[in-house]
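Hi there,

I know you've been waiting on this one. I reran it after we fixed the sequence typo, so this is the corrected version. Both the input and the resulting structure follow.
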Amino acid sequence: MNIGVVCYPTFGGSGVVATELGIEMSKKGHEIHFIAYNQPVRLDLLVHNVHYHEVNVPEYPLFHYQPYELALSSKLVDMVKLYKIDILHVHYAIPHAYAAYMAKKMLHDQGIDIPVVTTLHGTDITLVGSHPFYKSAVEFSINHSDVVTSVSESLKADTLRLFDIKKEIQVVTNFIDMKKYDHAAEGVCQRHVLADKSEKIITHVSNFRPVKRITDVINIFYKIQEKIPAKLMMVGEGPEKEAAEHLVEELGIADKVLFLGRSNEVDSILCLSDLFLLPSETESFGLAALEAMASSVAVISSNTGGIPEVNIDGVSGFLRNVDDVDGMAEKAIYILEDETRLTQFKKNAKEVAKKFDLETIVNQYENLYTNAINNLRE
């Protein structure tokens, strides 16, 4: 198959999933064409059957805001015709599914029919999509996709609650390449680089948006380090970083918190970690928690959205209500204060993560693509 992939090229979970899915499909012999305004961050190396096509939005004085959807839909039409793309997989309903629908209609008028698969990741539904200005467009885009998937049962339920959806929504979860995390079991993680032997290493990875509750991460850690020697690794950039840095100074723990910025070495950092904190306001899936669990890291998280489908309470870690800083800190200390208990939680986390192994999910998508193409041809 020749597969067109439309995604946000940023560090967010949807871009990572879209890119890694495309790369794995290329390994199965399919031709992959990424179409975005920048090269996806995880697309470090282009090989013969993986291609990137940039969407350029030309400046035009008539428009106060440049019409990205128009540029994207036109680019999709050109790429489908030039490379004989068989199917489009778009990640996010708005603006990608909306642009794909316009491309599909333009191609149909030229005698070309192509199926569109739309994957819902979260923000397009729970934040952007539920806004009155966008609701009609999101509803339309989902209902006019040939196949719709969501990354969790929770997100599916939110979509059906917020919108009048006529299409079936199939849950195909996010995934993890377990082979990438084998190094953690091989003893190559050099903990002394970041912490003393007596210190536990706690990690948070995100885009530091308000929904991630970054100050909660800091406050939870503050309570942990009062009881247990520990260091906190903060990985990422975003609008809440400055407030977090100020809070660290105010609490007098600047020597115990490392802000590592954006990093392509997240799996290496997780390899060093004992505990992962994810106290988010909402998460459609919780990919960051899954990456931690694949690295044998126990997780303390909120119990919102799709996180409970990933982090199993009392097994891979613990779940607490959003804003329950005391409860999250208490459970973190419970795990960390006993080495045998910590070892068991870390082992459990790895086992739970195996349910989301990449190979299983990629095969689901491959079957889904094949069925969508065959249904269009019937």
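Quick highlight: The mean pLDDT is 89.

Best,
R. S.
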